[in-house]
Specification:
This protein has 119 residues and is mainly beta. It is 0% helix and 60% strand. Strand 9 (91-101) and strand 10 form a beta hairpin.
């Protein structure tokens, strides 16, 4: 099994910044992709940003120019730097990690970290 843990959530005023981190732990990890998702009340879970082991990056249109995803050489920790935050960024932010433990594929989620942006 692979454990995924997010950190860095909190309360911030509109226009402020927050940085999230995602860490995966397990044996013989080979990470293929790490994605940040968010879940707001009464809304579908949506992709915020994703980075792959090959270095490709994609962002949701709503966060382009404001959020930046980055990772270390091993794949995790993965960070999400959030700037110019808006109240509609308020959500539980979840980290998804995909890859291999040895030859076994995995797709694991963290428990989420709450981000609240006040107006």
């Amino acid at each position: 099994q692979v454990q995924v843990e997010e950190s860095g959530g909190g309360l911030v005023q509109a226009g402020g910044s927050l940085s999230l981190a995602c860490e995966a732990s397990g044996s013989a990890l080979r990470i293929v992709a790490v994605g940040w998702y968010r879940q707001a009340p009464a809304k579908q879970r949506e992709l915020v940003a994703v980075v792959t082991s090959g270095g490709s990056i994609d962002y949701a249109e709503s966060v382009k120019g404001r959020f930046t995803i980055s990772r270390d050489y091993a794949g995790t920790p993965v960070y999400l730097q959030m700037n110019s935050l808006k109240p509609d960024d308020t959500a539980v932010y979840l980290c998804n990690v995909r890859g291999y433990t040895g030859t076994i594929m995995f797709d694991s989620w963290g428990q989420g970290t709450q981000v609240t942006v006040s107006s």
